[in-house]
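Entry type: protein chain
Record version: 2
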Amino acid sequence: MARKWAYLLSSSTYLPYSQQEVDQAMRELVDVVFDTATKEPFNADQVTGVGTRLVDMRCTGPTSMRRTIDVLGKALMTEQELYRLDDKRAERAIALLGVIASDYLEATRQFIFGQQEDIKEALVRAGAEAQRRMRATEARFDAVFTSSPSGVVLAALDGTISRVNPSLQTMLDREDFTGLTLFDLVDEDEAPFLKAACQDLADGWAERLHQQRKLIRPDGEAVRAGMSISVLRDDGTTASHLLVTVDDQTEMSLLQGQLSHQSLHDVLTGLPNRQYFSTRLESVLRQADPAVGATLYHLDLDAFSMITDGLGRAVGDRVLMNVAQRLKAVVAGENAMVARFDGDEFAIIVQNTDTTPDVISMITSINEELAEPVYFDGLGVAASASIGVVHKPPADADVTELLRTADMTLRRAKANGRRQWGLFDPAEDTRDRSWFSLAAQMPGALEMGDIKVVCRPLVQLMGNRTIGFEAQLRWDHETGDPETISHTLCLELAEQTGLVVPLRDTLLEDASTQVHWWNDEHGTSLPLAVSLTANQACDPDLVGAVLMRLSQTGLDTSLLRLGMPVSVLIADRGEAVDNFRMLAENGVVTEIHEFGSAAGDIECLEELPATSVRIAPRLVHRLRAGKSALIGRTLKDLIEVAKLAGATVVVDDIETADEMTWWRSAGVHFGMGRYFEPGPADLHDFGTV
C-alpha cells in the first residue's frame, strides 16, 4: 500500500526525492496511521503531523490530498485488525482522515505563507541591492557567482541566506535554501562556532575567516567543507552582506583518513604496524598498574618460508591473516594490542590485570591456537611460533630499547629450535649486546687492517718437528687484548655479518704470501693449512678464489692443505662435495675436518679424495676429561681406520706433553695446540723453525 501511495503522489506532482526515499517516507507514515487506528484507547490526534510531512515533502499537487484520502480510506476499511471493531471502523477511519486533511491544509497554508514572506523579503533585498550597485558590476558578480566551481553563498550579516550558486546546490543536494541561514547548513554542534565567527566579521573584528565545517545534506549525509567567509561593504565602509565560498573536502578528508590508517596498519592483516604499536606500547607502559605491569611478546613464525615456497605466496598470505585473527582471539579478553611487524613477525602488548593469565599460560594459549591447522583447498596448514617475552618492563623504559630487547630474546629462543620461547634476561642481554657490538664493528676492522692473518706451527709428532703452518685470524681490538678475539670468535662474528667469505679470501691471500715468503727466505717447502667453515666450503666460487690467490702469491697448489667440515660433505650439499673434488684434481691437499663427529664420516673418507683427516675437537676434549676408557679405545680405532684409508691424521688443541705422547702413540701424524711454540703470529716475527 505504501508503494502505491508513493506512486500516486509522485505522479500527481514533482517530488525532489528519489523514488526510494519517497517509498520509505510513505512506509513510515502508513505505520503511524495504522498504529493509531488499532491502538487503544483511540486518539485520532496522534496522526497530526502526517499532513505536515506530506507538505514538507512537497506533496502539494492538485490531487495529492484526494489520492491520499482515497488510498488511506480504502486501506483502513479493509484492515483486518479493525474488523473486531466493526461498528467503530468507519468512525475511526473518518476521524483519522479528518485529522490528516486538517493538518495538511494548515501545513499548506503555512508553507504558502512562508514562501510569500520569503519572496517578499527576497524582493526587498534584491531591490535594495539593485539600488546600491551598478548594473555592470552586478553582471560581473553574477557571472563569477554562477560559474564558480566552488559553492558560493550570499548572506545577510545575521547569516540569513540570500542567494546560492548551482555548485552549492549540487554539493548539498538541495535546490531550495529559502528561509535558511548559514547556521542551518552546518552540524548543530558546530553552528555556535560559525555564528560567533560571522558575528566577529559583522562587528569588524576581522575581514576574512577560514573554517573547516561539517555541512549537512537534507538526507543527513555529512559533507566536510572549507568555508571562507568575507564581508561585503556597500560604500567601502558599511558592512552589508557576508560572502561565503565553500569547497567540498569530503573526498580529501576520506583520502587523508585512508592514508592515516594505512600508515599505521599492515595492509595484509589489518593489524597495527610497528609505528602504531610503538606508540601504544609507550602509553601502556605509563598506564599499567605497577603491581602487575605489562608484558611484551615478540613472535616469529617457524619455517614460514616452507609454506610460501611449498604452497605459494597466496597461501602464505592467508596463513598470515589467519595467524593475525588467532592471536587477536587469544588476547580478546585483555587490554591488549596485536601488531604485525615485518614478514612473519608479530608482537603483542598486554596491559596486565589481576586476572590476566601468567606468561606460561599465555604462551600455552598462543601455541595451542596456532597449532590448530587451517585448511586451504583441502590442505591443512599450521605455523608454530618462537616467542621472546619481556615481562613487567619499567614504566620509563625506552620503547626502541624495549623492542630491541624483545627481539634479542626472540633470537635466543629461536637458537634453541622451533616453538621455543624465552624470557628476557639482563645478563644474557648484556652479553649479546657486546657480541653484536663486535659484529657491527667487524667490517670497519677488516677494512682498516685490524683483523690480521697469523700462523701457528703444524708439528710432526714423531720427532716434534714443524712441517708446516696453519693460518688463523686475530683481531687486534681496541681493548688491547688481541687474544680475546680469537680465530674461532672471528669466524663466528663473520657468520653474523656476512663477512665469512671475504675473510676467507683475505686469510688465503695473506697466509699464502707469508708462507711463500718463508719458504723463499729459508729454502723450505712447508705447506699452508687452512680450515674452512661450512659456509666457506659451500661457496660456488671457492675453487676459483683459491686458485686465483695461489697464482697471485706464487704458492704452489701442492703446498695448500684445505680442510672442510665433514658435516657439509655428508649432508648432500652438492657445492661442498664438488669443491672438494675439484680442489683435489687441481693438486690441493684436501682434508676432512671434525672427523669422528658424525655418522657417515667413514663413508665420506672412502668416497672422497681426502689426503688427511682432523679429529673432531669434542672428541679431543672428552679424552682430556678422562671420564671413560671407552673414548680412548674409540679414538685409537678411528685413527686406525683413517690410516687404513691412506689418510694422515691431524689433532688440534694439544696442551701438554702427556697429551702429545698419547696421541703420538695412538698413531697420529701431526698436531697443533698451545703445547707447541711459538704461538700464532705473523711469520715475519717467527724465529728459525
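Comment: The first helix runs from residue 2 to 12.
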